[in-house]
Amino acid sequence: MTGPAILFDAVDLTLGRTVILDGVSLRVAAGTVHALVGPNGGGKSSLIRALLGQAPHRGTIRLDWPGDGPGTIAYVPQSVEFDRGLPLTVEDFLAVLCQRRPAFLGPDRRMNYGAALDRVGMAGKARRRFGALSGGERQRVLLAQALIPAPDLIVLDEPMTALDEAGIAIFETLLAELSAAGTTVLWVEHDLAQVRRLATRVTGLNRRVLFDGAPLEMLSPERVFDLFSAVPRRTGAERIAS
Amino acid sequence: MHHQIVRRAGAERETLWVLLAAGAILASAALAVGLRAVPDADAPLAAHLIDSRTGLTAAEQGLYADLKAAGEEIAALRTAEGRAPTPQELAAEALPPFAADPSAAARGGHAWTFAGTLAETGDGIAYAGVSAAPELAGSLVLRLDGHGAEVWLKRAAEAPPAPPEETALAAAGWKRIVSTFSAGVTR
Q1: What is the mean pLDDT for each group of 10 consecutive residues in chain A (242 residues)?
Q2: A-chain residues within 8 Å CB-CB of B3?
């Protein structure tokens, strides 16, 4: 089963009086690596929260699954709020996130956490205390939890921020594997060079969609300047209205 | 192809379910109350009875309360002296309503007489008070037997039949004061 296509149609998100997303219409094709770029506060993470059903958005967000029913969605958060003193091993952490069986009954062997940890280069660290891991290692564990069970859609929220160089290489390999398996990847990223290299399509988002297309064409210097300028460009009609 | 619409985060559905549950509870409660409601079964009083709460004037209510208290006093005097006290003796003891005080005058100025003994209960006695102002309070008869005091009323300045037996009183248009307890009694 390949991944789903995602359709955002006129998605608005207003929290209090702050307009976070304003008429965002976007199509993520099935099985592509689709990158979302934009400045801080541009609504990238909010769009992902809306996709995950955690934001009071307006408009339509639709997932078109190729099969008869919805598949597996994996989510890798930007970071995880976590008490470093908690006596929780890496395996316990994965058990909390991935299995149906209560984690206090122990990790479910059938879930094969070892293989997932192996894929992110964390083999042999299943019994390490999660709080004792470095930031990069924790990010790798967050990637590992997204691989169990094998995802059809994976939503990545700046996964490379905390990764070290070795981690970045592992991430690139993973991305290639996922892409080859037909998984749809929605990827929020700061690092435009990586996006240019790895993404099949890129969308610039700053409250609204500023551009959408192939990375090599879209990530031109003017577009990037425009994207990261403090005030998002408005159309003429809106300028008159305000 | 399976289309999955991502629902917005919010408590609309939960709110709807809570409101539906509350509505169902209210509806079932209303239904239960409606089905179980019993109309007030206030049997009308017999023709020779009058209700002490609703049927009496203010003066009559005061006299009725005094007569009930006096009934116990008279019974005690009877036991102590071995004979029934006369209304004059009771007035001398300042026992209301027999005492001729301003309060008695304001409540109809009844002239109390000993109305004889009652054959029907054996050792019963009765006192009759003829009202001087029936519009304030009707004439009264206090009947005492072994069980307690019984008060009869007629809104006219006339003496009761002698002896004031129940049937005779009822036939002459007198009414016995009774206390009924219905849903309207709150204390």
Answers
A1: 89 92 94 92 92 93 91 90 87 90 88 89 89 89 91 92 87 92 93 90 92 89 81 52 50
A2: 62-65
Nearest to B2 among A55, A57, A70 (CB): A70
pLDDT tens per residue across span A78-111: 888 888 888 899 999 999 998 889 988 988 888 8
Match domain A1-72+150-242 to its CATH number in 3.40.50.300, 3.40.50.720, 3.20.20.70, 1.10.10.10: 3.40.50.300
3-state DSSP assignment of residue A153: strand
Chain A residues lying within 8 Å of B9, measured CB to CB? 53-57
Least Cα distance to A141 among A128, A158, A155 occurs for: A128
Nearest CA in chain B to A54: B9
d(CA A52, CA B31): 43
Measured in angstroms, the CA of A116 and the nearest CA of chain B are apart by 28
* Entry field: residues in chain A: 242
Q: How far is CA B179 from CA A35, A61, B50, B108, in A?
A: 90, 76, 8, 22
Q: Give the nearest chain A residue to B2 (CA atoms).
A: A65
Please provide the DSSP assignment of B14-58 as one string: HHHHHHHHHHHHHHHHHHHHHHH------PPPPTTEEETTTSS-H
Cα distances from A90 to residues A56, A124, B75, in angstroms, run: 33, 10, 96
Interface contact flag, A67 B2, Cβ < 8 Å: yes
Q: Which two tokens stand for residue A146?
A: 């997204």
Chain A residues with CB within 8 Å of chain B CB: 4, 50-58, 60-70
pTM > 0.80: no
Q: Amino acid identity of B118?
A: L
Q: Which position has the token pair 């049937």?
A: B167
Per CB-CB distance under 8 Å, the chain B contacts of A68 are: 2
The rounded radius of gyration (Å) of the Cα atoms in chain B is 29
* In chain A, domain spans: 1-72+150-242, 82-149
